[in-house]
Amino acid sequence: GKKEQFLYDLYAVINHSGSFKFGHYTANVKYGKQWYSISDSSVSRCDSDPVQASAYILCYKQRQTGTL
């Protein structure tokens, strides 16, 4: 039989800095082809790799690419 092949696209990264009891969360979100950095009420363009050492959660969406 045919096997389906799947790819996954990263669309958001949630970051955490600080300690277990106290910390701060930020996010990097892809909108169209551009990444944005979000912290509290601040949003700015992000031109660097969104996955950094402080990455806490990576969010992917599945993309079906066809059959093998």
Explain the overall architecture.
Helices cover about 0% and strands about 70% of the residues. It has about 70 residues and is mainly beta. It has a 5-stranded antiparallel β-sheet, with no helix packed on it. The relative contact order is 0.40. It is built from no helices and 5 strands. It is elongated, with a radius of gyration of 16 Å. The termini are close together.
Write the layout of secondary structure elements.
Blueprint: E1 4-18, E2 23-31, E3 34-39, E4 42-46, E5 55-67
Antiparallel strand pairs: 1-2, 1-5, 2-3, 3-4
Which key phrases capture this entry?
elongated; mainly beta; 5-stranded antiparallel beta sheet; 68 residues
Tell me the radius of gyration.
16 Å
Quick one: how many beta strands? 5
Low-confidence stretches: none
Largest sheet: 5 strands, antiparallel
Element order: H for helix, E for strand: EEEEE
User: Order of strands in the sheet with the most strands?
Assistant: 4-3-2-1-5
Distance between the termini: 9 Å
In terms of DSSP E residues, the strand content is: over 45%
Helix content class: under 10%
Structural class: mainly beta
What best-fitting shape do the alpha-carbon axes yield?
Answer: elongated
- Number of H- or I-type helical stretches: 0
Give the integer mean of the pLDDT values.
Answer: 88
